[in-house]
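Re: [help] complex structure
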Amino acid sequence: MTARSTGSPSGSPSGRPGPASSRTTPPPGATVPEPSGPDRRDLDLKLADYDGCFGCGDQSSDGLRVKQTGITGTEVTGEFTVLEAHQGAPGLAHGGVLATAMDESLGSSAWVLGKRYVTGRLETDFMAPVPVGSTVYLRSWCTGVDGRKAYLQGEGRIGGPDGPIAVRAAALFIEVPEEHFSREREG
Ligand SMILES: CCCCCCCCCC(=O)SCCNC(=O)CCNC(=O)[C@H](O)C(C)(C)COP(=O)(O)OP(=O)(O)OC[C@H]1O[C@@H](n2cnc3c(N)ncnc32)[C@H](O)[C@@H]1OP(=O)(O)O
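Output below.
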């Protein structure tokens, strides 16, 4: 597997500091592996079979049904539409729903790395209210991998893929063995 140097985090159009704390910022020397190989295809197939996911599954009636729209390197784009079932304040998306959408998007970018990851830490900035009926355009990317730890950042925009940022996030994902999921199902 080849690797390139960790890229700098995205800019901050709002002038506010970026979303990543010290716990979601890769340490010096962390690298971003190039996604590759049969592992990734295997994982994609297994995940494609699982449509009960609250984030992306078709069988989760009130779920977000995030649709993946593209993968370039570790950058994964997707989108979902905010339904009435996703409201917090009247007419506006609940912050937890937006955090879930970011978890889904960041998780997609982590899985593209070709290993199994779970969210260890998720940090979010809510930048603008998101009305019911809005499509949220999601984008996530890996900022570094250090051993079992994968560092991710992402954002959700409204009004179009290049519209204003409504939510952004930084996360630490932890690599787990396949048994992690078997154990959880049997639990
Ligand atoms: C296309 C497909 C897309 C799929 C998208 C899916 C998106 C959804 C993703 C999820 O929501 S996953 C579900 C939510 N997450 C969980 O349920 C995880 C629950 N937590 C655990 O299972 C364990 O705590 C975990 C596996 C994360 C870690 O336990 P371990 O016993 O394996 O490891 P350990 O606790 O020793 O931690 C390993 C390292 O990570 C660090 N770490 C773990 N959790 C951390 C945390 N929260 N913050 C900072 N560091 C953390 C920890 O300090 C340590 O650092 P060092 O190696 O440097 O000592």
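Residues 70 and 77 are 5 Å apart (CA to CA).
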